[in-house]
Design a protein that fits this description.
Layout lengths: L10 E5 L4 H12 L3 E6 L4 H5 L4 E5 L5 H10 L4 E4 L14 H29 L3 E6 L12 H21 L4 E8 L2 E2 L4 H5 L1 H10 L6 E2 H12 L10 E4 L7
Length: about 240
């Protein structure tokens, strides 16, 4: 009997795979049998050392030509748009530069990466899976992160729009919305005793998420087991939004 959660024979591209959630997704997909291209501007040495079958590719997500070149010259079955940035400032003081930088990486690049990927899939008459990384701030407002919140709301919307257009053409487009995950980016929060306590009290599961929790969910959305799932934004948050 075929394992519906296997990715054997598939080739996946994961952006921002050098650390944290992106690294965990790359490792999980490799463990599930996929050949994984770890894409980004930073060294992927640590990620590759933890993988069964992976390679690194230099990829600036803000460069639309880079995306076109990758998909036109390489057969990719699974695209994971994980790369993202965040800028924090009071909304009254938030700069246009910080707005544009975040929107370009978190939203604009996601759309055009998806576009380049879909064009290649359709040209070869194949099928594919896209997993976008949304956020709890695809549903909530947050504080002092206006461009990040706007971009992640946009990721949820683009995911649904592309699913509407491409589901019948053989591409599954879905997203993951990670909750509070143990990564380098959240180290300061976890070290803040009061803030850490308030976060844990809100999470029904009673713990911070692990990057592997997101990696495993990404494997599911990219696998045959999720064949009939289109336009979903799956919360992986320990129950945070249900509270």
């Amino acid at each position: 009997m075929t394992n519906s959660f296997e990715l054997t024979g598939k080739r996946a591209l994961v952006t921002g795979a050098n650390t944290g959630i992106g690294q965990a997704i790359a490792i999980a997909m490799s463990n599930a049998g996929a050949e994984v291209l770890c894409a980004g501007r930073s060294s992927m040495a640590q990620t590759l050392s933890l993988m069964k079958n992976g390679n690194a590719v230099e990829f600036d997500v803000s460069n639309r030509d880079a995306a076109r070149n990758i998909f036109e010259n390489d057969h990719i079955d699974i695209l994971v748009n994980n790369a993202g940035i965040i800028r924090r400032e009071d909304s009254t003081d938030f700069s246009e530069t910080d707005w544009d930088d975040v929107m370009d990486v978190n939203l604009k690049s996601v759309f055009f990466n998806c576009q380049a990927f879909a064009r290649e899939v359709f040209a070869r008459g194949g099928t594919g899976q896209i997993v976008n990384i949304a956020s709890l701030l695809s549903f909530q407002g947050g504080i002092r992160v206006p461009s990040y919140t706007a971009s992640k709301h946009g990721v949820a919307g683009i995911t649904k729009l592309l699913a509407n257009e491409w589901a019948a053409r053989g591409i599954n487009v879905n997203a993951l919305a990670p909750g509070y995950i143990e990564t380098n980016n959240t180290a300061a929060l976890r070290k803040d005793t009061a803030r850490n306590k308030s976060i844990l009290e809100r999470i029904p599961a009673g713990r911070w998420g692990k990057a592997a929790d997101i990696g495993n969910a990404a494997v599911f959305l990219a696998s045959p087991a999720a064949e009939y799932i289109h336009g979903a934004v799956l919360n992986v948050d320990g129950g945070w939004l249900a509270r």
